[in-house]
C-alpha cells in the first residue's frame, strides 16, 4: 500500500487537509493547534518517520544508496529526486484528470500526497549527506525546505542561518523553546495556499484532460524547487 491509497482511505487526514485549505484561503494567521498546524505536523511525521507500509526517509535513503549510490552520494541524491518526481507527477495528473467535477474532492488529498513525498525526499537527501533525522534541528530544516526559495526566510524566523558543520550544532542552543511549532506556523499557510482553489495556476486544472497535464507539470516543477532547496539546505557533511 503506497501513499496514494493510504491517504485516500484516511478520512481523518482528508478532513484535516480540507479544513487547512479553508484556513489558508481566509488569508489570516492560523490559530495555534488549528488545522494548518495539524496538517503540517502530519506531513512531517509521515514523511520522515513513515506510516504503515509507507517507508520512512531513512529507509528510502538506504535504498537509494545501494550500488553506486553508496560510494557516490550524489548518485543517491539524483535517484531520490527522480523517484519522488515521478510520484508527484502522477499525483498531479490524477488530481486534474476529472476537471472541476473531481478537483474539490481530490485536491486536499493531493496536498497531503505531494508534501508527504516532498518531505520524505528532503529527509532522505539529508540522510544521504550525513545528517541525523532524529535531530530536532534537522527536522526543522527539512520542514523549512518545503517552501523552496523561501526556506532561508523561514529559518531566520526561528533564529537559524545556513548549516555550518554537521547540523549547525553551535546554533541549536539558540532555537526557540518549540521550534517545530514555530516553523509549522511559519510555513503552514504558504504550503497550502499553493494548492488553494483560488490560486490562478490551478484554474486550468478545472478542464478535464488539460487539467491533468497542467497538474502534473505544476507539481513536478514545485518538487524541483524543493529539491534545489534541499541540496542547498543540507550540504555534504565533511
UniProtKB/TrEMBL annotation:
Keyword annotations: Membrane, Transmembrane, Transmembrane helix
Region (Disordered): 1-35
Composition skew (Basic and acidic residues), residue ranges: 8-29
InterPro entries xrefs: EcsC (IPR024787)
Domain of life: Bacteria
Pfam family, one: EcsC
Transmembrane annotation, as ranges: 88-107
Name assigned to this protein: EcsC family protein
